[in-house]
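Retry 2 of 3 after timeout on previous attempt. Resubmitting structure tokens to design endpoint.
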């Protein structure tokens, strides 16, 4: 793959991740991770919640006066279950936070970090060359900082790709917003056609007399 397309794809993937949102991606990936690994903590958490709900339901149906021994036993069971659930929630939350932190780090390494590496590694190489004399003194800045004169450097090409994608995002959102606004206004302003009121018996009788 050419250097031009490699840089464009890196910038494009990075922008797509920003559009979707890191939190959405991490949540989606964590859900898949739990399904693949079949985490015992998550399974135990679900089972404990179901058990607590069952014991609470039985506790509400038990009279504290008539069946005090059974009621007290269920009460202790529910309290113990809630304490265990709180401790398990803390463990699951810590595991989830660790996963999200690792995921975000890997995401940065393989997107933004990789762009830095590519930019540094190919800092003296031209992405492509411009026709001689087309842009005059601007050609120097397009090859900044280390690319050959008359070419476009990796850093400039990265910024150009990102700028184009950001503009495309704004245009797409504006077009989509206008479309939704148009559909909302067109459906909201429609009014049902007025139908003529049927003549009552009194009105028809008066009409016959007049004739």
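Retry 2 succeeded. Sequence:
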């Amino acid at each position: 793959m050419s250097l031009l397309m490699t840089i464009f794809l890196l910038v494009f993937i990075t922008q797509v991740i920003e559009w979707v949102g890191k939190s959405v991606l991490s949540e989606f990936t964590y859900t898949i991770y739990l399904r693949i690994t079949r985490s015992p903590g998550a399974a135990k958490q679900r089972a404990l919640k179901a058990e607590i709900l069952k014991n609470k339901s039985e506790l509400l149906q038990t009279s504290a006066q008539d069946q005090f021994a059974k009621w007290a036993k269920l009460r202790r069971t529910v309290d113990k279950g809630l304490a265990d659930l709180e401790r398990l929630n803390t463990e699951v939350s810590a595991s989830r936070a660790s996963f999200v932190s690792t995921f975000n780090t890997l995401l940065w390494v393989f997107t933004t970090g990789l762009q830095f590496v590519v930019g540094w590694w190919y800092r003296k190489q031209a992405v492509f060359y411009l026709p001689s004399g087309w842009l005059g003194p601007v050609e120097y800045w397009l090859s900044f900082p280390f690319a050959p004169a008359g070419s476009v450097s990796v850093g400039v090409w990265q910024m150009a790709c990102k700028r184009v994608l950001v503009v495309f995002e704004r245009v797409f959102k504006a077009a989509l917003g206008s479309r939704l606004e148009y559909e909302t206004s067109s459906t909201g302003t429609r009014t049902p056609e007025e139908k003529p009121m049927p003549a009552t018996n009194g009105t028809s009788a008066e009409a016959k007399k007049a004739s």
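Attempt log closed. The chain has seven helices and two strands.
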